[in-house]
Amino acid sequence: MRLIILQSIVCNFYVYTQGTNGKYFFPQVFFDEEDAKNRLQEGNSTIRGVLFHAEGSIITKTKYYGKKQTVVLFPYTSYFSEWYNLKYQNPRANIILRPEVFRYRLEAQTDEYGNFTFNKMKPGKYYLESSIDYIATGVGHERVATIYYNAYWSQPIYESYYYNYDVTKIANKRY
Questions:
Q1: Residues 94-128: tens digit of each pLDDT
Q2: Are 41 and 121 in contact (CB under 8 A)?
């Protein structure tokens, strides 16, 4: 049995077009559908993990759990390996997976605490990905007044306020 902690990584899977002139790139390795299909056949292993994003410093770290999110598992084939390497060597490039890759995946739903399980897996390498949606709280400061002591010296007065904002993080891990 494997225990996987699927924590979000700040370098997300957003598509950038700067520097690539709108070009799209594909891995040059042949996608072997038979190999992908074989890697997803039933086995006797279980992959278990927790989906979360940790934010803040060591002292004030906050964990946001991926509640009721879908975790997607892909077999880590040579095609997927090249895609992964291209994506992380060129984070601003548009590295695209072929549509047939998505036919060979498994999905699991997380519970209220971000726990997920893939049962009856064959031993091997896999790539997992999910998103985490949560509402975070920020602190802002607004200048509300100025105290004038004389013509040369003054002091601004600031008030702190709290606000909420929506966040979506992409979590991914390869094993």
A1: 888 889 999 999 999 999 999 999 999 999 999 99
A2: no
Residues 6+ apart with CB under 8 A from 168: 131, 132, 133
Give the Cα-Cα-Cα angle 80, 69, 91 (nearest 5 degrees). 40
Q: Which residue has the tokens 């060129």?
A: 90
For the chain, the straight-line distance linking the first and the last C-alpha, in angstroms and rounded, comes to 13
Other C-beta atoms within 10 Å of 7: how many?
A: 19
The set of residues, in sequence order, having a beta carbon less than 8 Å from that of 171 and lying 6+ positions away, is: 6, 7, 8, 9, 51, 52, 53, 66, 129, 130, 131, 132
Contact 86, 29 (CB under 8 A): no
CB 32 within 8 A of CB 79: yes
Q: For 38, phi and psi rounded to 5 degrees?
A: -65, -40
Instruction: Please state, in angstroms and as integers, the Cα–Cα distance from residue 64 to each residue in 43, 55, 167, 173, following that order.
Output: 32, 8, 10, 17
Neighbours of 67 (CB within 10 A): 15
User: pTM above the 0.85 mark?
Assistant: no
